[in-house]
Amino acid sequence: MLFNLYEVSLILISFQCFLFATILWSGPGPKPRANFLLATLMTLLGVQMLVILFENRVYTFEEAQSYLCVFGFGYGPVLYLYTRSLIYRSYRFRKQDALHAIPLTIMLLSATFGVGLCSRFGSFLYVSLIIYSIFSFKEIVSYTKALIQTQSANGTITLSWLKWTLVLFVATFLIDIYQHFYQDIEVFQGVTLVNCSILILVNGMFYKGLKQPMIFQGITFEEMAVVTKSFASQEQSEEVEKKLEQIRRHMSECKPFVNPMLSLNDLALDLNVAPRELSGLINRHFNQNFIDFINTYRIEMAKDRLMNPQDEKETIIEVMYLVGFNSKSSFNTIFKKKTGLTPSEFKRSQGI
Hints:
Distance between the termini: 74 Å
Structural class: mainly alpha
Strand content: under 5%
CATH class of the largest domain: Mainly Alpha
Number of helices: 16
Helix content: over 70%
CATH topology of the largest domain: Rhopdopsin 7-helix transmembrane proteins
Largest sheet: 2 strands, antiparallel
Number of domains: 2
């Protein structure tokens, strides 16, 4: 039995999806729920590719169509929950999360018992995909805001790759919409543009999705609340000034910023202040978000160390780690932003 190139692309996508899903389900990791959800997404996609293949080889068009739209109602919810599982530390499934599976369950049961709902409601899957994509983007935007208010790590905590994954995901189903209602966009010998997009999406999500959870463990729901709930201080200015002086003294004397993973919660615990209150004090009275506030102290210490090295052989990289940075690119970028010079230029300007 010979397969044409289009069918080969379906087999390749399906094989990769099942292989990746198996690795994700069986492999250990700090975010097992994220891996489980990504594996579920891969499995759904792999099964759909097989159904499309069987449509060409075994099923009649009507039989295949009764199942094809089913999968579309699963992609959006799983991708949304996957996004949340990456964002939040120690993510747990909630009872209300089961509600996301209702449309998928209804469509699957109807297809199983021969009630073809796809012909009447299949187009709603595109509405579902758009809605869940918007929800996922909103989660990432909120996460990014929370990071700069609660974390001090530089260069390893963004999920920009996930934004691009969502962009590619949206682009793929927009191409699919066009091909579904108008005509296929053929790339080469029957292989369509949507097949190529899915191949890129699958490989990109697997590589980054498996790698990224090892980089950053996420934030807590309490840390997210820092940016979703404002803190309105009712204290008198004298009391506020005492707290500001306490913050300045603690930063200068204890130098907590040299810890590259210092968080708002850590600093609040040291100062015996509520995290939301501390965030409000930094935002309003220092006119900085948390990460800028911490980096200001790091750069000042780096400048002092570069001008007054403890050892004449001390390198810029050693200074970088000493003051709390763990990324050379971030250190160079932030140093130049604060001083107008790179660390090397600054060192040369001091005649060192």
